[in-house]
Design brief:
The structure holds two protein chains of two kinds.
Chain A lengths: L17 E6 L2 E6 L1 E3 L5 E3 L2 H7 L23 E7 L17 E3 L4 E2 L10 E3 L3 H16 L15 H9 L17 E2 L4 E3 L9 H9 L5 E4 L6 E4 L11 H6 L5 E3 L12 E6 L8 E7 L2 E7 L12 H5 L13 E3 L2 E3 L1 H14 L5 E5 L5 H14 L2 E4 L19 H6 L11 H10 L4 E5 L10 H10 L10 H4 L4 E6 L4 H5 L2 E4 L8 E4 L4 E5 L12 H13 L7 H11 L16 E2 L3
Parallel strand pairs in A: 1-8, 19-20, 19-21, 21-22, 22-23
Antiparallel strand pairs in A: 1-2, 3-4, 5-6, 5-7, 5-8, 9-10, 10-13, 11-12, 14-15, 15-16, 17-18, 17-23, 24-25, 25-26
Chain B lengths: L20 H6 L4 H7 L4 E2 L5 E2 L1 H12 L11 H6 L9 E7 L9 H7 L1 H14 L2 E8 L4 H16 L15 E6 L9 H8 L14 H4 L6 E5 H13 L1 H5 L2 E2 L2 E2 L1 E8 L5 E6 L5 H6 L13 E5 L8 E2 L3 E7 L5 E7 L7 H6 L8 E6 L4 H15 L5 H17 L8 H10 L10 H15 L1 H17 L8 H6 L2
Parallel strand pairs in B: 3-4, 3-6, 4-5, 9-15
Antiparallel strand pairs in B: 1-2, 7-8, 9-10, 11-12, 11-15, 13-14
The chains are: A alpha+beta, B alpha/beta.
Chain lengths: 581, 477
């Protein structure tokens, strides 16, 4: 039995009364209350009922994760209610069914609560006409510059115009002109003419990001989104406004004019910038990544991502990536290098090997390393990475898989506590072989003497004693990394690894959410996913043959690591599973 | 014959009447507040007790008082919606944002008899357990705000506001808040947003009904100046007596703002429904007729957003004959009694009771262009149909009045206008900006078509000189 693996994000809520409504003549049962944007249970609205009935209601301003304002008027529907007699009892038709009286005025489905027996009509001629009217209104002053607009291809104005609009415009007046290419902040550009004034961006930054940075100036058709003069829109969540902007008004300075949306291949992935592990989509084309956008996951990030996380992808395409297997500085092959390493490791006496793995590696990789560690009787640890967090998404833990490293036994709860033992072991000559994964260990190294001085004056010690001088005492230094650094320079064996966007695997976030990610692009040159060559290495050293697929590997790991018991690769789904940490 | 009936404006224009509290007190001021505060609990036949405030609320219901701001909604009913069990404070806001073009009645009260408003508000507050009230006054009425603030100071000094009013144990504070100059602030939820310091975007209803989630998300009553003054008179004379004024379901008096092509424009207080539109325009006691040699062309009966009446237009109104049977009576537009229901039955509204008279010197297309420009400027821009439609109509009318019209513009205008009202927008501004266009074009279509056709003919003749349209764009930026 699994320890506590669940696919639910929250404990099952107490039973909520169901009520029956009809959507376009089809009766469905829907809960009377549904969580609103803030998670509070509120009366179910028509648009939520329609969604449950799998009936599309077009909308611009409505967003399930934002307060409802009802200004776009695109979601107007007609509806009817059971007619009541003077005795306040429903009037019945001849066949005993309740008589429905159709309401004279339409209602916005985003804000109107449902009630028992309500009938919602989304396809009547009047609804069709109202949608046409709204679209016509939105388009009269719209620049229609789709050919050069970044939103083209994923634009709700385009989509709804095709689905619900009219092919011709009656408008013969001069359009309203508004500011274009407005620099709203370091990452955001506004084209006010494209804006349909749905105010999603305003509500997002005010109510989600907690930064009341955007507002509307002017009146009527001249309304324009703006920041307060001299105050840039620069919080760490601004790019979410680009995602939720239904049109091309807000564009990302990083992405604009770089690639047409329809050319992008979208891959379900994660953000590795911190321990939160936001679900993300990678947009790539021809082995190049163009953008990260958030992917809905209520157990982790809702619909949002921070700017710093999503923009931290450029290094993946860097030209100086490690592309070759190097043996003592000479280009080699995987087979040759792995055989040589395996032979050496098999001959090492127990206790003479140390492993510094990385909490940026996947659960599967860390588990494979733990196999190696057990066989070699090695000491292991990982490098903590602490920074600043916030109250929204950003975690102070900058490693994406700290819990993976703990659960697979690579490090203790307090990560980094073994590093001093490792440096002492090397200094004393007991440890002769060091294997390093994905950590430039010399970067934060200071001599052991200095380190001890500091320990007496400060509790927080980010540094460790693995200095270049110390590493020079090793017989064998094996380093796997993605980018060249000072540690790879010292290595006898350099094994080029893959960025997470270049492989599959899973991470366990700070809250114990295990999520998988898919491969978006190919690793450059001879670089290989670590789990692939680790599998070979473990096989060579231990003689155990494991699974050669990520699914099999994960499932095997889940059987052996208590915290993951009961979880399968498949059960992770798109949004992951929470395990006991 | 129709007569003026001065209830609210009884003293305001009397020679020697001044707006200071001493003068007001000499005229019996604040006696009704004292009377209200002193009301003793009343025993009901069923054994229940009716408190003083409940008695006033009941009396307001009996009086049949309808809101004087524009919608004509029952005041007693509005008060009955107030959530009194939320545990939150209840607020009362006096809507003094009088900004419907043609309307100038509330300012007469505020400028000439501010204490009447304060007394009416104080009674209404007492009746609704309100301890903090606001007067949201139109920003342009700079003097009005000064006058009201002065009056509040006087009332405080005399103990009619503040702690323990007249020894009753009832506390009430009142503040004046000046708007920043937007028509939409007269819409009650827009007003509330503005009072909260925000952009006056009207709120969606549901869920933000002011009676439940109003100012600061607390139950809130928003009433017009004239409505609140009426409450004072209901307490003075009793609801049943008040209901005898005017006509059934259209009780009390109304202050009519009469403007346009009449000899004596001005404000006239009448018993609701006891004078017809024709009497208000032509009677020497009221408008005194059109300017000499002119003929009536059109009348906007209830503020500029009300649908226009064309001279000579006839309506079939329901009336009861001698035997009590309902019959349809053909009624000329001028013979419509000036009340809520008759004007609604004729397809328009008494709105803010502002009559705008247009004689045959009026270019009806120009008149509508003027109105539409106002509404395009005042649309808050929240809802798509109104935001875009109001300016679209205005641009079309601008074109039509600047020699660039088309014969088809009449139909074109109506099609634009049809996309705006009828629940397509959050607030009634959608109706306010589209009703004039719909009604003007429907009733004077030939003039719109003729103007456009004339432009087309001129352009066809003058094809060698292409139309200069740049000035049109310039005028709209």
């Amino acid at each position: 039995m699994s320890t506590a693996a669940t696919t639910e994000t929250k404990p099952a809520p107490t039973a909520i009364e169901k009520i029956k409504v009809k959507v376009d003549g089809r009766e469905i049962e829907v809960p009377r209350l549904i969580a609103d944007w803030s998670g509070k249970l509120t009366p179910t609205t028509m648009i939520q009922a329609c969604e449950l009935a799998k009936t599309d209601v077009p909308h611009y301003c409505y967003h399930p994760k934002l307060p409802v304002v009802g200004n776009c008027r695109m979601c107007l529907v007609e509806y009817g209610m059971p007619a009541m007699g003077p005795d306040r009892k429903p009037i019945l038709n001849a066949d005993g069914s309740p008589k429905i009286s159709k309401m004279p005025r339409p209602a916005i489905s985003c804000a109107t609560p449902i009630s028992p027996g309500m009938e919602i009509y989304t396809k009547t001629p009047a609804v069709k006409q109202m949608r046409e009217g709204v679209l016509e209104s939105l388009l009269i002053n719209h620049p229609l510059d789709c050919p050069i607009c970044d939103q083209a291809g994923e634009c709700k104005l385009q989509e709804y115009s095709v689905d619900y609009g009219q092919s011709e415009s009656r408008f013969v007046e001069a359009k309203v002109h508004k500011p274009k290419a407005v620099d709203l902040g370091p990452r955001i550009m506004l084209d006010a003419e494209r804006c349909i004034l749905c105010t999603r961006c305003i509500r997002f930054t005010k109510d989600i990001a907690g930064d009341d940075a955007l507002g509307i100036i002017n009146r009527g058709s001249y309304n324009t989104i703006a920041t307060f003069p001299g105050m840039p829109f620069d919080n760490n969540y601004t790019l979410n406004t680009v995602d939720i902007c239904p049109v091309g008004a807000l564009t990302s300075k990083d992405f604009r004019f770089q690639m047409r949306a329809w050319f992008l291949k979208e891959t379900k992935s994660l953000c590795t910038n911190c321990g939160t592990g936001c679900s993300a989509l990678i947009g790539s084309r021809e082995e190049k990544i163009y953008r990260f956008t958030p992917r809905d996951n209520d157990a982790v990030n809702g619909s949002w991502m921070c700017d710093s996380g999503r923009l931290n992808y450029k290094w993946i395409g860097r030209a100086d990536r490690l592309k070759d297997v190097l043996v003592r500085g000479q280009k080699s092959t995987w087979t040759a290098a792995l055989n040589e390493i395996s032979d050496k490791l098999k001959k090492t006496p127990a206790g003479s090997v140390a492993i510094v793995a990385s909490a940026r590696q996947t659960n599967e990789e860390l588990w494979l390393i733990s196999k190696l560690k057990a066989k070699l009787g090695a000491i292991s640890d990982s490098i903590p990475r602490d920074g600043k967090g916030d109250k929204i998404l950003v975690s102070a833990d900058k490693n994406p898989n700290t819990n993976g490293a703990r659960l697979t036994g690579i490090c203790f709860t307090e990560m980094g506590i073994n590093l001093v033992k490792i440096s002492d072991g090397i200094a004393s000559g007991k440890i002769k072989t060091l294997i390093v994964f994905g950590e430039n260990i010399v970067k934060r190294a200071v001599s052991n003497e200095k380190l001890r001085e500091r320990e007496t004056i400060s509790e927080v010690v980010d540094e460790h004693g693995l200095t270049p001088e110390l590493l020079a005492k090793l017989d064998t230094l094996i380093v796997s990394d993605i980018l060249p650094n000072d540690t790879t320079k010292l290595a006898h064996y350099v094994l080029p690894g893959a960025a997470h966007a270049e492989k599959r695997g899973s991470f366990t976030n700070t809250k114990g959410r295990v999520q998988k990610f898919m491969k978006a692009v190919e690793a450059p040159g001879d670089a290989r996913a670590e789990w692939e060559f680790l599998h070979d290495l473990v096989h060579n050293v231990t003689g155990q043959n494991g699974f050669v697929t990520i699914e099999g590997l994960f499932n095997q790991m889940a059987k052996e690591v208590p915290a993951f018991n009961g979880v399968t690769w498949q059960s992770l789904g798109d949004t992951g599973v929470t395990v006991q940490i | 014959m129709a007569q003026e009936y001065k209830l609210i404006l009884k003293y305001a224009d009397e020679p020697g009447y001044s707006r200071d509290i001493e003068c007001y007190l000499r005229h019996g001021g604040y006696n009704d507040l004292k009377k209200a505060l002193a009301l003793q609990p009343k025993d009901l036949p069923d054994g229940k007790k009716l408190s003083g405030p409940e008695q006033i609320r009941e009396d307001v219901k009996i009086s049949g008082l309808r809101g004087r701001g524009g919608a004509g909604f029952s005041c007693g009913l509005k008060w009955s919606f107030v959530d009194r069990k939320s545990g939150k404070p209840i607020y009362l806001i006096c809507n003094a944002d009088e900004s419907e073009p043609g309307t100038f009645k509330d300012r007469q009260i505020m400028y000439k008899d501010p204490h009447q408003l304060i007394e009416g508000m104080a009674i209404s507050c007492f009746a609704n357990d309100v301890h903090l009230a606001y007067i949201y006054i139109r920003g342009e009425m700079v003097d009005g705000a000064k006058i009201l603030n002065e009056a509040l100071k006087e009332a405080r000094a005399k103990g009619f506001l503040g702690k323990n009013i007249c020894g009753s144990g009832y506390d009430l504070e009142m503040h004046v808040h000046r708007g920043a100059g937007a028509y939409i602030c007269g819409e009650e939820t827009g007003l509330i947003e503005s009072l909260e310091g925000k952009r006056p975007y009207p709120r969606i209803k549901p869920p933000y009904f002011p009676a439940v989630l109003g100012l600061w998300m607390c139950p809130t009553i928003v009433n017009n100046v004239e409505t609140l003054c009426n409450v004072k008179h209901i307490v003075a004379m009793g609801g049943a007596e008040f209901a005898k004024l005017g006509t059934p379901n259209n009780t009390g008096t109304r202050i009519v703002s009469l403007s346009g092509h009449v000899k004596k424009p001005g404000y006239y207080e009448i018993e609701t429904g006891k004078a017809t539109i024709g009497e208000l325009i032509n009677d020497p006691k009221f408008g005194g007729g059109l300017r000499d040699g002119r003929k009536l062309k059109a009348v906007i009966p209830g503020g500029s957003s009300a649908k226009v009446f064309k001279a000579g237009e006839k309506f079939k109104l329901k009336k009861k004959d001698a035997e009590g049977k309902e019959i349809l009576v053909e009624t000329d537009m001028l013979d419509l009694p000036y009340d809520f229901d008759s004007l609604a039955a004729a397809g328009s509204m008494s709105g803010s009771s502002a009559i705008i008279v247009m004689d045959d010197s009026t270019d009806i297309v120009e008149a509508l262009a003027n109105l539409s420009e106002f509404y395009a400027h005042e649309s808050c821009g929240q809802c798509t149909p109104c935001r875009e439609g109001s300016l679209w109509m205005s641009k079309t009318l601008h074109r039509l009045t600047h020699g660039e019209g088309r014969a088809s513009d009449a139909d074109y205008l109506v099609k634009i206008a049809d996309n705006i009202p009828g629940g397509r927008t959050i607030c009634a501004f959608g109706e306010a900006c589209s009703w004039p266009v719909q009604s003007f074009v429907a009733k004077f279509k030939d003039e719109f078509v003729a103007k456009g056709a004339a432009d087309e003919a001129r352009r066809a003749k003058d094809i060698s000189a292409p139309a200069e349209t740049k000035h049109l764009e310039a005028a709209h930026h």
